[in-house]
């Protein structure tokens, strides 16, 4: 498998006005990601409202992604579950649709115990042979918030773990420590946390970022500039997008969907996830923040 690097946005799950999964809108988002110049796609993840999807809905959307993507980009399937048997089943479901890796969150129930974490991942790897695993290290309460050294130790114990998505704070320091502890045995460490710390992560050796989708074109341009050694352009893109990403930190998927709607990619912004909802002032503010980020947006979707 070719080493995975670059920008891998997590696709949101669009819903119809009657709260059903909207497959047509989902295909449009896939095309937007491809056309934006990103390096791959992730689905489902927390930004996909995965916790609200039934097993049937999740499986159907993974299949839709595989068929519609048709090999245009690699995709990573989200396969997190507290039960390694269920996690492996989700990984195999992704493999059947063409996924090249499975992103699996370090389970909180195993705590900081490296042996327990390694046992969990080894069980997944045994039940889903052939797929690379990305260990997602997320903050509590959703994740186990493993120390960087524990992440490297778990990965060393389970050869199927080839990548890490690091989202515990301070992300940049943790990227440095994971890479040092892993000693070159991993294929890469990617940043998460909505790309709010992306330049620090890249400066410390991260091989990519996994943000939400709404600024996929901006993040792809930032990555290209960084790889080309054009730090000034990368920082200018970061400067223009960060206020919107900070706003998104509070409203999460609702902010993502509102931006996508205003970019002409979604007709309906309904979300199942818990969390704050916009009032009139928030809707006015997000419009201002979109205008701040607009110089970084290279794509103008035909659906607009």
In words, what does this structure look like?
- Pyruvate binds at residue 210.
- InterPro entries: Aldolase_TIM (IPR013785), DapA-like (IPR002220).
- Keywords: Lyase.
- It comes from Falsiroseomonas stagni DSM 19981.
- Belongs to the DapA family.
- This protein is α/β, with parallel strands linked by helices and 304 residues long.
- It is built from eleven helices and eight strands.
- It has a domain at 6-215: TIM Barrel, CATH 3.20.20.
- Helix 4 (114-127) crosses helix 5.
- It has helices at 23-36, 55-69, 84-97, 114-127, 148-157, 171-182, 198-203, 216-227, 231-251, 253-262, 280-293, and strands at residues 6-7, 41-43, 75-78, 101-105, 132-137, 161-166, 188-191, 208-209.
- The longest helix has 21 residues, at 231-251.
- The protein has a six-stranded parallel beta sheet with strand order 2-3-4-5-6-7.
- It is 47% helix and 11% strand.
Shape field = globular
In round numbers, the mean pLDDT is: 96
The fraction of residues in strands falls at 5-15%
Major beta sheet summary? 6 strands, parallel
Report the strand count. 8
Instruction: Name the CATH homologous superfamily of the domain at 6-215.
Output: Aldolase class I
Kindly name the structural category: alpha/beta
Distance between the termini: 37 Å
Strands of the biggest beta sheet: in what spatial order?
2-3-4-5-6-7
The stretches of 5 or more residues where confidence is low (pLDDT under 50) are none
Output the radius of gyration.
18 Å
CATH topology description of the domain at 6-215: TIM Barrel
CATH class of the domain at 6-215: Alpha Beta
Under the CATH scheme, the architecture of the domain at 6-215 is Alpha-Beta Barrel
Helix segment tally: 11
SSE topology string: EHEHEHEHEHEHEHEHHHH
Q: Please give the share of residues in helix.
A: 40-55%
């Amino acid at each position: 498998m070719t080493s995975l690097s670059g920008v891998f946005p997590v696709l949101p799950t669009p819903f119809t006005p009657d709260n059903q999964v909207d497959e047509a809108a989902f295909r449009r988002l896939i095309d937007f990601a491809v056309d934006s110049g990103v390096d791959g796609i992730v689905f489902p993840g927390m930004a996909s409202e995965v916790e609200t999807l039934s097993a049937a809905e999740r499986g159907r959307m993974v299949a839709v992604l595989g068929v519609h993507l048709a090999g245009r980009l690699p995709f990573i399937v989200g396969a997190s579950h507290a039960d390694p048997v269920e996690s492996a089943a989700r990984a195999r479901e992704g493999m059947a649709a063409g996924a090249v890796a499975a992103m699996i969150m370090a389970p909180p129930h195993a705590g900081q115990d490296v042996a327990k974490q390694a046992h969990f991942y080894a069980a997944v790897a045994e039940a889903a042979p052939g797929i690379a695993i990305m260990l997602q290290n997320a903050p509590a309460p959703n994740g186990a918030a493993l120390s960087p050294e524990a992440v490297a130790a778990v990965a060393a114990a389970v050869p199927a773990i080839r990548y890490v998505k690091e989202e515990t704070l301070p992300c940049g320091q943790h990227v440095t420590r994971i890479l040092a502890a892993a000693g070159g045995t991993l294929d890469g460490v990617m940043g998460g946390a909505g790309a709010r710390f992306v330049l620090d992560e890249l400066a410390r050796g991260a091989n990519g970022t996994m943000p939400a989708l709404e600024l996929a074109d901006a993040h792809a341009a930032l990555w290209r500039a960084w790889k080309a050694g054009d730090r000034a352009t990368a920082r200018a893109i970061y400067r223009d997008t960060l206020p919107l990403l900070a706003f998104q930190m509070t409203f999460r998927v609702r902010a993502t969907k509102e931006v996508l709607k205003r970019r002409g990619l979604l007709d309906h912004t309904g979300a199942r996830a818990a969390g704050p909802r916009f009032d009139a002032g928030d809707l006015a503010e997000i419009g201002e923040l979109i205008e701040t980020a607009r110089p970084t947006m290279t794509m103008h979707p035909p659906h607009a």
